[in-house]
Design a protein that fits this description.
The complex is a heterodimer.
Chain A lengths: L1 E4 L5 H9 L7 E8 L9 E8 L3 H16 L4 E7 L1 E3 L4 E9 L2 H18 L2 E7 L2 E4 L4 H8 L9
Parallel strand pairs in A: 1-4
Antiparallel strand pairs in A: 2-6, 3-5, 3-7, 4-6, 7-8
Helix pairs in contact in A: 2-3, 3-4
Chain B lengths: L1 E4 L1 H7 L3 E3 L9 H9 L3 H6 L7 E4 L2 E3 L10 E5 L6
Parallel strand pairs in B: 1-5
Antiparallel strand pairs in B: 1-2, 3-4, 3-5
The chains are: A alpha+beta, B alpha+beta.
């Protein structure tokens, strides 16, 4: 399941909803991205996430379907927030549930890596130096590329 | 067709979305971008460096040689930075 929302999320409530009474689940892997204060020269005061409504949901659904195809998942949830967020606030939740831990761990990492390069979000950072659009990192591309079909562990 | 802009491309172009009717000679994304550059200094600046412009046609990522036609929604934006 995917959600794109302005509101915050409650990790334990989301986890409970994800697992429900599915006792085939043996483990849940949860990644929560939060706004980091340190950005280099100047402390960050806030960050505004912009996205492409419609395409964002489409891409997230596609990424989720890809993870479900590659790993045996009992549950999968992606929540990505948009709007203005301050340091310490939650940005993204990726939760994967599976019978055995490897599938949950790997799928969760796959999803977080692919989110960074596929989902149409942009971050505008605010600091004492004024607003600045975050640039995409080559290291994020590299992280996503390692999941490309040729070398991915099935 | 509808053009939508995001992040700093939107700021530089000075518009978040616009309806345009390019001439029939505009057949693909690359041609459309060249044509849009003639719309003003802001558009030209936003679209000056295509290495930092990503394109989606009808909400699907495409390359510069992808065809465009009336009724399409074409999005122009910088490389994404979500997650």
């Amino acid at each position: 399941m995917i959600r794109v929302q302005r509101e915050d999320f409650d990790v334990s409530a989301e986890m409970a909803a994800l697992t429900g009474d599915n006792h085939a689940i043996g483990g849940v892997c949860v990644f929560v991205g939060v706004v980091r204060e340190e950005t280099g020269e100047e402390a960050l005061s806030a960050m505004t996430l912009e996205h492409y409504p419609g395409m964002t949901e489409k891409e997230l659904r596609r990424i989720e379907a890809e993870a479900r195809e590659r790993w045996q998942l009992e549950g999968c949830l992606i929540i990505h927030r948009y709007g203005r967020l301050e340091p310490g606030q939650q940005i993204v939740l990726v939760a994967t549930a599976s019978a055995h831990r490897h599938a949950a761990f790997e799928a969760c990492q796959f999803l977080t890596d692919w989110l960074k390069t596929k989902a149409p979000f942009w971050k505008l950072e605010e600091s004492g130096q004024g607003p600045r659009w975050v640039e995409a990192k080559d290291s994020d591309d590299a992280a996503a590329t390692r999941w490309s079909r040729d070398d991915a562990a099935e | 067709m509808k053009i939508v802009y995001f992040a700093w491309l939107r700021e530089k172009a000075g518009v978040s979305e616009e309806q345009v009717s390019p001439p029939a000679t505009v057949k693909d994304v690359k041609g459309l971008i060249e044509w849009l550059c003639g719309h003003g200094a802001g558009h030209a600046e936003a679209l000056a460096d295509l290495s930092v412009v990503r394109v989606a046609v009808n909400q699907e990522y495409v390359h510069l040689d992808h065809p465009v036609e009336a009724g399409d929604e074409i999005a122009l934006f910088p490389p994404v930075t979500g997650g």
